[in-house]
Specification:
Elements (H helix, E strand, L loop, with lengths): L2 E5 L15 E5 L2 E5 L5 H7 L9 E3 L5 H4 L2 H12 L4 E5 L3 H13 L12 E5 L4 E5 L2 E7 L9 E5 L3 E3 L7 H9 L5 E5 L12 H4 L4 H4 L2 E4 L16 E2 L5 E3 L14
Parallel strand pairs: 3-4, 4-5, 5-6, 10-11, 11-12, 12-13
Antiparallel strand pairs: 1-2, 1-14, 2-3, 7-8, 8-9, 9-10
The structure holds ligand CC7 and zinc ion (2 copies).
The site of the ligand Nc1ccn([C@@H]2O[C@@H]3COP(=O)(O)O[C@H]3[C@H]2O)c(=O)n1 has 8 residues, from loops.
Function: Counteracts the endogenous Pycsar antiviral defense system. Phosphodiesterase that enables metal-dependent hydrolysis of host cyclic nucleotide Pycsar defense signals such as cCMP and cUMP.
Pfam family, one: Anti-Pycsar_Apyc1
Protein name: MBL fold metallo-hydrolase
Length: 257
């Protein structure tokens, strides 16, 4: 089992230099897209992928930088590639995704639903679900916008990937100390206050042993000004392919490209 991650983008919702914070996870030749924001269709194209190369899609929550590219994906899969892509998402998000986002653009007669465009796989929270051979996920409800469901992702019991979330020191301590999580990709707002995201100054209060496992993503366009100001934490680089198994808490990147 060889799990790799490549970020289509590492930017915040308002970033323009960086693309939306969406990821490709590959395991043994199969590819999962984690979130499909506004910039995802062009980002995939620029990396040489078509939507048809994706084996499944997994969503964290309903914000445009995480789902804004789904209409194009759905139309291309239906009218160009003629198949329904597998769509994993929390069971609590299924109705909202259709009724409050995709229906307006996708529905052409009133009988059509999300299931006409996707092979929908609702996931229950707090238990493992197989995504691809060699890849499973547990959804962890995390706080982002009040009254808006949002999920972070625990892959293969050791790799935590935050959906957008406020700083939650107890959760991060528990993941590392109780569940032996070794790699944490975390959204990071560079400037305080961290009202709907974790901000850098909050993440810098974590114990060093946790910071050594943290890789920062979902950052603003002035990220270069913060290089060298993140303690033991590292920035995830957009488009770079990382071998997740080799990302150790000693801060060694398993870079293969
Ligand atoms: N209550 C809110 C709601 C939204 N926002 C900003 O809008 C962005 C939507 O995408 P995001 O990546 O969740 O980041 C949110 C905030 O920048 C915000 O700052 N406060
Ligand atoms: Zn976001
Ligand atoms: Zn969000």
């Amino acid at each position: 089992m060889d799990l790799k991650i490549q970020m289509l983008g590492t930017g915040s919702a308002f970033a323009k230099v960086f693309n939306n914070n969406n990821a490709l996870l590959t395991v043994d030749g199969l590819t999962l897209l984690v979130d499909c924001g506004i910039t995802a269709p062009k980002a995939l194209y620029e990396l040489g992928y078509s939507f048809n190369d994706l084996d499944a899609i997994l969503l964290t929550h309903i914000h445009a930088d995480h789902i804004g590219g789904l209409e194009e994906l759905a139309f291309q899969m239906k009218y160009i590639f003629g198949r329904k892509p597998i769509l994993f998402l929390a069971d609590t998000l299924v109705e909202t995704l259709w009724e409050h986002s995709l229906k307006g653009g996708l529905q052409q007669d009133e009988t059509e639903t999300l299931h006409d465009f996707f092979d929908v796989r609702p996931l229950s929270v707090g238990q493992p679900h197989d995504l691809l051979p060699g890849l499973h996920v547990e959804l962890i409800a995390t706080r982002h916008i009040p009254n808006k469901a949002n999920y972070s992702l625990l892959f293969n019991d050791f790799f935590f990937y935050s959906g957008d979330t406020v700083f939650d020191s107890d959760l991060l301590n528990s993941l590392v100390n109780d569940r032996d999580v070794r790699v944490i990709f975390h959204d990071c707002q560079l400037h305080p206050p961290g009202v709907v995201h974790a901000c850098l100054s909050q993440l810098l209060t974590l114990p060093k042993a946790i910071q050594e496992r943290v890789f920062l993503m979902h950052y603003g366009d002035d990220q270069p000004d913060f290089v060298g100001r993140t303690g033991p934490m590292k920035f995830v680089e957009q488009h770079r392919i990382y071998d997740v198994d080799q990302l150790t808490f000693a801060g060694q990147f398993g870079m293969i490209e």
